[in-house]
Amino acid sequence: MKLKSRLFLALCIFCLKSELRAQAPINLNVGVLLPFYSDTTSSLSQKQISQAALDYYAGLRIAAEDLNKWNVSINLRVWDLQKMSDSALILLPKSAEFQSLDIFFGPITQKPVDLISTNLQKTDFLWVSPLTNLKLPKIVQNVNFFGHDSLRIKGLVHQLKLTYPEHTFCLIVDKKNQSLVKYYRKELKKAKIAYTEHFVSGNKVSPRITTKTESLILLNVGTSSFSRLAQFSNVSRKVDSYIVGDFNWFDDLSAAEEIDETKIIYPSMNFISGLDSSALRFTETFIKTERAEPSKFGFQAYDQLTFLGGLFASHGRLDLNDLPNARYNGLINTFELKKSHTRTFINQGIRLIKNEKIELAPVEEDETTK
Fold this sequence. Notes:
about 375 residues; alpha/beta; Rossmann fold; 2 domains; seven-stranded mixed sheet; 10 helices; 16 strands; about 35% helix
């Protein structure tokens, strides 16, 4: 980030924090419904989900402590999905605690959503699907922080157009893995980005890329990170040309001596910079309180609650329609919320990772949110 951009961002954050400290305290009731419980008889899958939920909750607690310093008081109310029957979920909306909520985080599967939705009485709260893409009831304002693949692709194409508006685009496709190609074609067309389409197989790209432009983007879909070798000669000697990897590349990052990593862009939903002082401070706090390293779920929870708490504090209400057309960069995620229905918002924020040292490993992935 350029110095001017850093100074501007720091000034904005300083002004926001100063404003929040000066005003009267704000109270937010935040509910959390996640599958926390597991024991020695639980399956490996359930233990992993349970640990993810605990890490997420720990991230919420740290965010609540930080927001409290800015005169935003968070009252956390927690329900363990593992200990609730279907009938208990149906009755949950009638409880006094639920009816006092401003924000509701959870669950992570569709069935509990449907059970709770059948008996909703209070609708003036924000329902958040924090870790998976769920169909939330449209009678309440709701947000999915992790959307369908098509939305991630939409966010990626949007970000590439903003960052590289004058570049020539080539779509690089794996013939054996074309399930998502239609989404790329659709979004490139909507963004009015002209492109040529090429297939990669082994060490060959066909048809050959013959453009002589110095500003080239090779946008990959369905390819493996090993295909970088076949593509690299097309960008290696061009001053402002890059290979944009498939979403799975960053999760399977491996060094290759023949590749100049400064010419590769890795799109990712989850990325933590090892140089981010705020991320380091969060890690230190998490280790101190939890006696363990934070997983990606702790970072995600921190970003989500900090983002929403800041919105409430600055506008006096939790209405996502008040959001400016802007991007919010958290510790691990970027939020760029887009309306898909009158009261439904979906995040399509993507991070373009470039010029990072190869030893900065990706946040670990598991089956919980795939």
